[in-house]
Each structure stands twice: as C-alpha cells, then as structure tokens.
Amino acid sequence: MINKFINQHILDLKKYDPVDSDKKLAEQFRLDEKDIIRLNANENPYGPWAGIKNSFSEIKFNVYPDSNQDLLRDSLSEYTGLDKNQIVAGSGADELIECIFKIFCKKNDVLVDVQPTFGMYSFLADSIGMKVIPFDRNSKNWEIDIGKLKSEISINSAKVIFLASPNNPTGNLLSNKDLKEILQMDILVVVDETYFEFCGETSAGMIKDYKNLIVLRSFSKWAGIAGLRIGYMLANSEVVDNVFKVKQPYNINVVAEKAAIVTLENRLDLQPNIEKILAEKEKFRNFINELAEWSMPFPSDANFILCKFAKNRGEFIFNKLAREGIFVRSFSNENLKDCLRFTIGTIDQMKKVKKVLLKL
Predict the structure, then answer these.
(1) Which of 24, 23, 36, 39 is nearest to 328 (CA)?
(2) Mean pLDDT of the chain
(3) Does the pLDDT of residue 152 top 80, yes or no?
(4) Are 25 and 36 spatial neighbours (Cβ–Cβ below 8 Å)?
(5) Is residue 238 within a helix (H) or strand (E), and if so which, with residue range?
(6) Mean pLDDT value of segment 118-147
(7) What CATH number belongs to 53-267?
(8) What's the topology of domain 2-47+268-359?
(9) How many separate helices (H) and strands (E) can be counted in the chain?
(10) At 78, is the secondary structure helix, strand, or coil?
(11) Do 343 and 283 touch, CB atoms closer than 8 A?
(12) So where are the chain's domains?
C-alpha cells in the first residue's frame, strides 16, 4: 500500500552498489577480518596525519558545528588560493553532488553521463527523475571524443555534465583544452578532482573566467579520512551562496571539521605517503606489463590502476584474490568486462597481490 505514495522514479531506482564492509566480506569468503586487504575503494592505506587524534581533545562535542564553516573555509582558501566566498564544504563530495542536482536540475532534465565513470552522478540524477544519456569513452585509451560529446549535449539539451579528472575508474586526466570547449557551451560543467593530490593537475584557476564551472575535491583519498566524510566545492560565489541555502545547516560535524583543518596544517607530513603510493603504483604497473600475455594496465594519474585481463579471466582473478583476502573492484559496465581496478596499497600489501597473481 505504501508504494502508491512513493514517486515512480524512486520505485524504479536501483540501489547504489557500495563497497562491502570488512565484516560482510569476511563472512562471505570465510576470512578473518584482520586478514582483509582493502584495495577496492581507493582509500589511503597509510591513514591520516599521525597527530590527528590528539587534536580532538580540543573539540566541544556538546556544541553544534559552525554552519558557516568559517575556520574550515579559511584553511581551504589558504590551501587552494581561492577566495573564501568561492568555497563550501560538504559531508563528502557526494553531498555536494546532491546539492548541485537540487539547485540546478529537476525531473526530466538531461544528464549526459560520460562512461565509465563514478556511478554517483547517474545514481543521483536517477533519484530525482532526470533522463540519463550514456556517452561512451574510447575503450582503447578512455579518451573523450569532444566533438561527438558536444553534439550529444546539443541534441539532448543537457543541463549538466560531470567530468572526473583523473577519472574513476580509468585514471586518465581531462585536458584544459577539452574542458574549455565544453565550458563554452550552455551547460553546467562539474569537474570532479577527488584525486587531485595524486596528480597536481587542476582546473580551479578557470573558475574566474567560467561561471558555469564547478570543481569538487575530497579528503577521503589523499588525506586518509574517508570515514569522516568531508569534501569541498570550488565555484563562483553565486553557486556557493545557493549551496548554503540548500545544504543541511550543520552538515560538517565537529570532528570532520577539525580533522580537515589539522590535515591542511600538516599536509607536508602526508606528502611522503603520497609519494610511496605513486612509487608503488609505478612498480605495480611494470609488474602487470610483464604479464602481457594475459593482462594490460591502463595509464593512471590517480592512486589506482585499472587492468584489463584476458577474455573471461577478470571474474576468475577477482575470486582468487578474494579467497586470499585481497579485494579489488570489479564492474558490471560492458566496456569494463574483464577489468579490475586495483587501489595501490602499502608495499607489503602490493607484494602479496603480486605473489597471488604470479601463482595464477
């Protein structure tokens, strides 16, 4: 009976497919939780800044967070070089993506979804009844045919487009030249720079010239605080003002706020971990290249590598790794058949991955 009150597009909505908890994985594959190696969510295996917990003693847990996010936005302004009024933080970048849809989009508006990419874009578009038009990347190198994309945008009068750079799960960057071509169209362009700290490439400097550009970033990957759920948006002040209208007033809890601020203050201490991840990524790419008869790694500017395995071997390898407690990301997208995404773990974790793959 309750279904008659629910919007049809919600009834039709498929649940988002998140990464399973360690507990669930352990039960499914009959493992001990302590033996699980999580290489399926692009988390930082080294964790946060070492002194982060000590800073929590200063927090007033009985007081609501600052709805205006003043201290946090001051820190982000110093870090990004943008004005404070061009910045707003969210409970993960996901909340800010939801705010974008709430502010700019409505039922039956069109999202052109450049696939494969982060599934949250199409999921949230579906959740408000938008029309999602899939647009495939070149499966040989995952580049975007900008001419065809512009045509797709025009034909469908698309309202918004999300372009991750580096893209998840393919790892490749969006060039500023290609971005400018799309920005010159009548469409809202959101560049997701969740993995910015691993590549150093950003389009944030273009915000001053393009009011239709929004940049998203996160603390989940490079800073090792995925569990605290904090990300931020860089955009012109008009966009930010409207986000403040629709976001929950106390959307950033006091622990996440403090963690983000002290992380930025001590970011140089985290740089060695980023460098270790990048060095280990290069070693793993070379290792996969040596298995050329049955595997191929795609170039990546993030903290993960997408690998394509020989026909019908992707699922087999996924299961073999899982039985050893190693969990990587597989995909239902047809263009990603036999592809697995490996988050780069610690040196010891990657040694175990290579050992298992060599056995196969």
Answers:
(1) 39
(2) 95
(3) yes
(4) yes
(5) helix 237-246
(6) 96
(7) 3.40.640.10
(8) Aspartate Aminotransferase, domain 1 (3.90.1150)
(9) 13, 12
(10) helix
(11) no
(12) 2-47+268-359, 53-267
**Is 254 in contact with 91 (CB distance < 8 Å)?**
no
Q: For residue range 155-202, what is the model confidence (pLDDT) as tens digits?
A: 999 999 999 999 999 999 999 999 999 999 999 999 999 999 999 999
- Report how far residue 30's alpha carbon sits from residue 18's, in angstroms, rounded to the nearest whole number: 20
Q: Which residue shows structure tokens 């597009």?
A: 9
Q: In whole angstroms, what is the distance from residue 254 CA to residue 258 CA?
A: 6
Contacts of 38 by beta carbon, 8 Å cutoff, 6+ apart? 19, 22, 45, 327, 343, 345
Phi and psi at 8, nearest 5°, equal: -60, -40
Which tokens in the block code for residue 241?
A: 């003002």
Dihedral of alpha carbons 94, 98, 101, 106, sign: positive
Side by side, which strands form the sheet with 131-136? 87-90, 231-234, 213-218, 188-192, 160-164, 110-115, 131-136
What does 81-125 look like in DSSP terms, one character per residue?
-S-GGGEEEESHHHHHHHHHHHHH--TT-EEEEEESS-THHHHHH
